[in-house]
Amino acid sequence: MRFRFPFFIAFFLFAITLQANTYCPFCDSLVLERQAFYEDDLVYALYTHMPITEGHCLVIPKRHVANFEELNDQELQRIGQAIQKVDAAAKKVFSTGPYLLHQKNGKEVGQSVFHVHFHYVPRKIGQSSLMALLSKVLIAQLKGPISHQKMKEVTSKLKENIEK
Q1: pLDDT, tens digit, for every residue of 50-71?
Q2: Which of 12, 99, 122, 150, CA to CA, is 20 to 30 A from 80?
Q3: Residues of the domain holding 142
Q4: Is 49 a catalytic residue?
């Protein structure tokens, strides 16, 4: 009996680790249904559940690839086009101007979801410095995810204002 209990714990911990390493929120139909506001045959645009600023979106390929260099030419082109569409919609919905485009490629630089994705983080013209924006990153982590109702409101507005 002594040998079964440690084996069970070890198996349980292994299973949790395996699940944590294989689960991808960007491949999860529930996440996509809740957060997506744009889709074509290769790309999704999502409103992030923990926005740094109003209008913080993610642009992702539908195909699950972990790193930028795995994207093919057609995916790269569509991602670029989707970012332009997201920018136009964010300008209409949130009255933004400049934006930060951010992509992490590897665990060592902070990539936590291993499905390549681009953060589109808009700012209003004349808004405070880049250092202030970086402090908003920490604040967003402390505040946690936005409500389902807020997500629904924002994605509806973005859907109405994005060019197909």
Answers
A1: 999 999 999 999 999 999 999 9
A2: 150
A3: 4-161
A4: no
